[in-house]
Automatic annotation (TrEMBL), chains A, B, C, D:
Domain of life according to the entry: Bacteria
PROSITE patterns documented for this protein: HD
Domain HD: 60-176
Stated name of the protein: HD domain-containing protein
Organism encoding this protein: Pueribacillus theae
Molecular-function annotations in GO: dGTPase activity
Classification via InterPro entries: dGTPase-like, HD/PDEase_dom, HD_assoc_2, HD_domain
CDD domains xrefs: HDc (cd00077)
Gene Ontology BP terms: dGTP catabolic process
Length: 432, 432, 432, 432
């Protein structure tokens, strides 16, 4: 028997995207109150994007509430469905709320540099010695493990897994709407109310009544647009490049025995690869910004310069650059070195790519569960077979390569400098 | 002759409130790029409000751009107005952009505790040795001083002053719309496009064509609603109370010679009242949050507890409490002391009050410039004489008093505790 | 036992105001399908307002669906409330849907000229030999009578009455939001979702939890603004004046034995005061416009001119005119007569007045049920005692008087004409 | 020299889609006031769509204002462009306003049945003896002819033609946004402000700066979605089928010498193919609805039944039906005839098809001007070569076939009826 207590009176959060977020279960209320969940307030949803779209200052806290609310609305229709019970409901809501709880500051960059995976930390927060675990354990002793399994996609009831991990899940629906709202772009809009109305549980998955196909097309297109207009915006990527190089530099300096004016206590366990949950949870974006600001005054000129660039938004300029142009790349590399501009930090090729939708390709690295339409006659059809718009972009990975460099330093070079001549020439051609 | 350079191509910022913010002058572009202006990205527009309305994570950076954009739209109608020239235009735009540049982290609380005034720092940033000053000085040598005068309201052309400091200025219009957008409440909405259409320069002030009276009424009501629904929300004030008490405690400890585990370098000049501009500019909300997080581990139980409350949002509970109830206040104070709960930090009376609109009352502390309506016959009439809605709330200061205390500690007391009995009894009566 | 059948699958209408309107009961679906209800598609919600706000072309059909939807959402919270059962639910929904079913074309004007009352026709449609009555009777034999009583406010369960007839009912909430949406003005917006959340059934009335007071204030102010900005807009009233005069003229001509080129079949029963339900139901705004267009070619110059003005939007001009200025009125009247411009049709004083909110004043003509706030301690307080904004406008009737006249005809007069001189002089003074 | 007078003060119309529509030229103000333009108030923008989406009651009047406003905003950027002068500006604005002025009631159906073309009437209104022509002629004697040429796409300056007739013109942009707004669907939204910012005059066409490609993609997708979600909605088409059959029937009856109880004066010239402009202008949707209502009482059972269906929205049911299924079609036809249900009126195959975007295919019936992107290096590239989303739908005509029939009559047949059996069987299979 699951231990569930209802709140005396429903609580609501005012939310600009979903209007209100409704909480009726003590479990959910208590989870929101834990310090591990509150910590998400100090981690931005979109990393460095606020340096391009100044409205994008929203946190993972609000996104997590949003995902919870969408799941709450979806499963409102599941009552009475065979095998669906109170425990499944609480599992779905909790997993939705906690699916991102392990994210750290500037997650993607940080994880890449330090070879970490936020999903590990999500698992540790749910299963370890935390306030979150204490709240979950009160429901039932195996409740935390089940939540962890759902987020890891290994839980046996794939229907619940699909609510937060599929090509049309609550996670994606919330972030598209939310990121569109806070950046102010119109592309992320789609008719979520209609999509929620046509979602049906069907064996191990949520399927979409075929009458809702156009709403799903619109959702797929929104996602496609948001990737290219917002998530891969070259200016945000410029800030990300600098962030990455700061972390690389600081790690390199630490490993080289450089003596920091400002001690790197908060980062030491990351440098040496023995990160505990406690250290991880202490890190958030305010801590990172504190250090970046302090490191502006380090004697190391590269660390100091990069931190100054990040804090004061003196970003790198960029141009198209196809990595196949090896000769040009080597020439630039050498020219930068000759000018004393370390190309390891100041000449950066960055690539982004996205697969807007894909059908199932067995045996591939990440087997994507396709979206199925449910026809009036009960037949199930994979989306791209019904929609020619989706078919057109289905399985097509698009990649964008950009070269980043400090234009201000280049401009200061003498006009006979090879580095300057190469860059100016490439810019005139619009990159290569 | 004013030195103005136009950008080769107009730059735009995507803004959720005004759709786009348009920049055509190099001066404005360069000001936005200064590090003093970029620093506003690290200071939230609404202080602790994000702990109540999770969407309210927007910064003073975006508000400052918004005020600039509104002024830009207003003065688009001023061309050809006698005495209006290119210099007035640049002065208006720059002053709009910079009017809040001196704000520090959690401004209101911080200033109160350390007896500072952000307007002093605004002046220092504009006139001192800063990137902002360097950019402004390039226009004309006395340009920085004029900007400073406009913000200080001492500038001779009161028309320009009124654009950013009056009862219907660009500052208020932007923050109402912006705060409504990011919190998600609908109250702050009003028809700014209509108001901008009916604004007319008239001697030393912007006046409103009387056909736009209802739009102005709606704006005044929006302001009234936002104050009581958002700005004075008792939960945000609870966080503010805790913040205030943290700063009080840390100042007290420093003055008492307490030895901090975590050195208070960033704050020392504030404790000792000799704050320089450099120190001030280094402080932002990420620095504050860094310290609050570190201070959770201080041996001093009060500092550690208060920081834990702020970081993990374990706020104080509140009730109505009229400060005239001196006897009850003293009884509570004593009962808290008897339980070892220091009332100086854990029993806090907080009052908020607002004057939604006022006409001119000569000789008063702050002489407010009233809003004038311009009638078709050329006559000017003060708003509250024409609008009975505005008249109804005109000059009426409303005050709200609340008592804050840590309910969690009270609940842990034995049922015979006087403190507990007093609190429980007052709560039953809904406060006094 | 009430006969209720659920639809096999929920039906929805896409609605711009409430997003979707949900229908689950066969009864409601069948009522919407009746010809008496479909007829509301041919009657505009805002009469002549579309001649001022071109978006305001929406019909009473969409408003009626909206009122139904709001009531549906309100009573979703009433289940389990003592005395509330399936029959009350169906009664509330049906009464909401049908409350305006008796409206005729350009209702207010039409009723005034022909001394009719749309509420009589609502009753006849519900109780008479109609498709609506047939559908209602299938539920239970006394069901139509109960619906009629609810709309007439004589039904014993005043709680149901108050849902569609009170100072904060579903009717008003829908029309404010809808009229704001279709005109495009922002004034009518308020947070209906919040108001619905704080509505509670309380004995014979719906009351509002006091935590929702500001949302109600905002609603009252929206109503106030909509009245003066939209409903009483002087240009719409100009069209209404002409409409009224057309009907007066055609009635006068009919009574005088004038021989119409275009027979007035559709109107005859109205002229002679023996209107049957069948004739009434045949009239709608397309019929009216058909006749107005045809009457442009009548030999009677006044009828023909007025119809031309209405069809082609050649409206009367207006100015402020206080009816106390009897002398000026008589002078104008005489001057118009002297010029052969019949003042009975071409010099029209029109007054509008509104009472935005009122508390209960026993013994008055229309005893208004006030809005009550429900305090946490269970006490009920009348709104204007708690809200100073509402108090300010409470019980204050505001009246606006305007004088309408055909400026085009006046302009054609010789400059020595007294009529022209009087009008020009008054216009210079901005009216009197 | 062009005769242009500016209004003493700018006039505005409140518009829900563009917020305000601004008029500064007397010419435009006077055109709006003509009776031919005012007549557009009595013709719905979306024909029978209001019977599916109840909000879609907006008129061609508001759409025409919207197209004008968009063109006004686009050409705000054209000043100073070589060859662009005051006359081109007035031509563009007038053509935008008047491009639809020749539309009649339920245009598409009406034109098909009576072999008319609204563009003929547009030309006649502009060149003939009308108020519109009188206003236009005051500018310059050849001004009306130029306007007519622009709308007919034969005007020499193709840049002006492209503003209102291309694959991304002001007409399409307004109707997508407007129809989305009034129906309440979200699909029609796209970022028009961004598109207007990236439009550039380029020789004979407006081109799009390539940085705006994604906004254009979004616009193309909106159009695609609106066609299938709104414009081709099968329920609206059901009403259109009935409307078409009414007109066919009435024409047939007139030609057969049937004696109408209600004389068909307004239609006679249409029956006999000698339609003059005066007769045409008298027809509007209120006149049509007047007749449909009257014809419900005609003795002819088909006319009376069809009118009853249209007025009271008793529409035909539909199913998928591929016209290749000739055998089934003939069987149904015969079965209907056997039951005395005239298949010419009660068994209707209706097909809709759309081409969302196409590049230039020389020699084809309608040579479509493609959308060009302007690259930073000055190169012009056709949209579908740059955008894979657009490429995917480019030139692909999609067709939808539906069979319409009166389900109510079929249900009344005995269960042994072949017609009933055929229909029921097809419905079970979801159509063929």
């Amino acid at each position: 028997m699951v231990n569930n207590t209802k709140l005396h009176e429903e609580k609501v959060f005012k939310d600009p995207v979903h209007r209100y977020i409704h909480v009726r279960d003590s479990l959910i209320w208590d989870l929101i109150g834990t310090k591990e969940f509150q910590r998400l307030r100090r981690i931005r949803q979109l990393g460095t994007t606020y340096l391009t779209f100044h409205g994008a200052e929203h946190s993972r806290f609000s996104h997590s509430l949003g995902v919870y609310e969408i799941v709450r609305r979806i499963i409102g229709n599941f009552e009475g469905f065979p095998g669906w019970n109170e425990e499944e409901r609480l599992l779905s809501l909790s997993a939705a709320l906690l699916h991102d709880v392990g994210h750290g500051p500037f997650s993607h960059t940080f994880e890449k540099v330090f070879h970490l995976d936020h999903e590990d930390f999500t698992r540790q927060i749910i299963l370890g010695d935390t306030e979150v675990n204490a709240v979950l354990s009160k429901v039932k002793s195996d409740f935390p493990q089940k939540i962890s399994d759902i987020i890891a996609k290994t839980y046996e009831n794939k229907l619940i897994v699909s609510l937060i991990s599929s090509q049309i899940d609550a996670d994606r629906m919330d972030y598209l709407l939310r990121d569109a709202y806070f950046t102010g772009v119109s592309y992320g809009q789609f008719d979520i109310e209609r999509i929620l109305r046509v979602m049906r549980p069907w064996e191990e998955q949520v399927v979409i009544k075929s009458s809702g196909m156009h709403a799903v097309e619109d959702y797929i297109m929104s996602r496609y647009q948001m990737y290219w207009q917002v998530y891969f915006h070259p200016v945000s990527r410029s800030a990300e490049v600098i962030l990455r190089k700061i972390l690389h530099r600081v790690k390199f300096l630490a490993e080289s025995g450089y003596s920091f004016k400002k001690k790197t206590d908060a980062f030491n366990s990351f440098f040496y690869g023995n990160v505990g949950l406690r250290e991880y949870l202490k890190l958030d974006e305010s801590i990172m910004l504190y250090y970046f600001q302090a490191w502006q005054e380090e004697p190391d000129p590269i660390l100091s310069d990069l931190c100054n660039r990040f804090i004061n938004r003196k970003l790198f300029k960029y141009m198209e650059f196809n990595p196949m142009n090896v000769k040009e790349w080597l020439a630039l590399h050498e020219a930068f070195e000759n000018e004393g501009i370390d190309p390891d930090y100041y000449l950066v090729l960055d690539s982004s790519s996205d697969l807007p939708y894909d059908f199932y390709r067995p045996g591939e690295e990440e087997e994507r569960i396709p979206i199925y339409l449910l026809k009036p006659n009960g037949e199930r059809r994979e989306l791209s077979r019904e929609s020619e718009v989706v078919e057109a972009i289905s399985g097509k990975k698009r990649t964008d390569h950009k070269l980043y460099f400090p234009m201000d330093l280049i401009e200061d070079l003498s006009s006979t400098s090879t580095a300057k001549q190469l860059i100016v020439d490439l810019l005139k051609r619009g990159g290569i």
